[in-house]
Design a protein that fits this description.
- The chain is of the alpha/beta class.
- Helix content is 52%, strand content 19%.
- Strands 7-6-5-8-9 form a 5-stranded mixed β-sheet, covered by helices on one side. A 4-stranded mixed β-sheet has the order 2-3-1-4.
- The chain starts with a strand and ends with a strand.
Length: 231
């Protein structure tokens, strides 16, 4: 299976590889990332009996790249809201991405699965235009500015009725099956990465052990309130 991407987005291919390391090991797959002109190329060779499994796993991660990284880049470029600090803006972007993450991911996955040679950027630009139109609608609905507690109220509203539980150990986040989550690697920015990872998990409850960064702790308490448990 061959997956290509613009060379400036090679980190998206690296995300696929690191996320599926265990799968690749168990299926005796050979993986390589190389450059071809202005393109980065991921090649995965695997025994034929694992063909459908590998294809589905890679398609799932490509869909995640589109639903998180591409959506982040789109919102960062198109969404201009005043009254927010840089950190607050990053929190807002992560929350908006998380709001429809599973729906966006499923739509992209259905368009990708079954393909054994594809370009991520080309797939997005030519086969996933409805996603871009949907994101444009989200941008058009957003207010031009947030003041006082409006951002916190808005995010709290989006977090209502979330049921999943995640576990936080220091600066690492794990899902209910104790699998490490690294979706924040698909975002830009460098602030409150722990909080943004939690937001991208679409969780409703958080169990925390160990020490967490102070900035993350402040925002977590504001947004999740009594949904945080310490162990």
């Amino acid at each position: 299976m061959t997956v290509t991407e613009k060379d400036c987005n090679e980190s998206n291919l690296e995300y696929i590889v690191t996320s599926l390391g265990e799968v690749f090991n168990h299926t005796q797959s050979n993986i390589s990332i190389k450059r071809a002109g202005s393109r980065s190329v991921l090649e995965v060779e695997f025994p034929e009996r694992y063909s459908e499994i590998i294809n589905a796993e890679i398609a799932d991660k490509i869909a995640e790249v589109i639903a998180i990284n591409y959506k982040y880049d789109y919102f960062l470029r198109e969404l201009k809201i005043s009254g927010l600090s840089d950190t607050e803006n990053e929190i807002l972007l992560a929350t908006l991405i998380a709001a429809d993450l599973e729906e966006d991911k499923k739509y992209a996955f259905d368009k990708i699965k079954g393909s054994y040679e594809l370009a991520i950027d080309g797939t997005f630009n030519f086969r996933l235009q409805p996603l871009k139109r949907k994101w444009a609608d989200v941008v058009s609905y957003m207010p031009p500015s947030f003041i006082n507690s409006q951002l916190k109220d808005f995010i709290s509203y989006l977090l209502e009725n979330k049921k999943k539980k995640v576990y936080v150990d220091g600066e690492k986040v794990y899902d209910a099956h104790y699998r490490r989550l690294k979706r924040c690697n698909l975002l830009g920015g460098e602030k409150v990465n722990l909080l943004r990872e939690i937001l991208l998990s679409n969780c409703g409850e958080i169990e925390i052990s160990g020490n967490i960064p102070k900035d993350d702790e402040v925002y977590l308490k504001e947004l999740y309130k009594d949904k945080i448990y310490f162990s």
